[in-house]
Amino acid sequence: MEQRTTQAVFYWPVRVYYEDTDSGGVVYYANYLRFMERARTEYLRSLGFEQDRLQREAGIIFAVRSVNIEYLRPARFNMELEVSAQVVSAGRASLEFEQQVLEADRHDDPLCAGRIRIACLDAGSFRPRALPDYIVKEI
């Protein structure tokens, strides 16, 4: 499985491991957030933005500000998934992502969907800081 981007939507492959599931073999609800976090990180990486370098060189970090998530159908042990990440709005110091967790071969019926707002913060003070222009230009 490889990452792919289609029409400004980034997709990251995830396989459901036993550790991701509850005793019934269904993905534990909080793990969908982990899958989404990985997809956002890999999306930024695909654009050339490594978060450790941003912290070290630009003095910024990203933190989740808010999450709105809907669990639509269960993902189960050993399923191949794709997690999408798409920036739907950019504020002065924030990004809003629309994300879905999908079966790898079936994109018409999401398992989970969410909107996640990410704040750009000063790495030292944890106060809001404007997104660098070079990031806004790429997203």
UniProtKB/TrEMBL annotation:
Database matches in InterPro entries: 4-hydroxybenzoyl-CoA_TE, HotDog_dom_sf, Thioestr_dom, Tol-Pal_acyl-CoA_thioesterase, YbgC/YbaW
Pfam families for this protein: 4HBT
Ranges of residues in domain Thioesterase: 24-106
Gene3D superfamilies referenced in this protein's UniProt entry, alphabetically: Hotdog Thioesterase
Keywords, sorted A to Z: Hydrolase
GO MF: fatty acyl-CoA hydrolase activity
Family to which this protein belongs: Belongs to the 4-hydroxybenzoyl-CoA thioesterase family.
NCBIfam families assigned: thio_ybgC, YbgC/FadM family acyl-CoA thioesterase
Stored PANTHER family: 4-HYDROXYBENZOYL-COA THIOESTERASE FAMILY MEMBER, ACYL-COA THIOESTER HYDROLASE YBGC
Name of the molecule in the record: Tol-pal system-associated acyl-CoA thioesterase
Gene name for this UniProt entry: ybgC
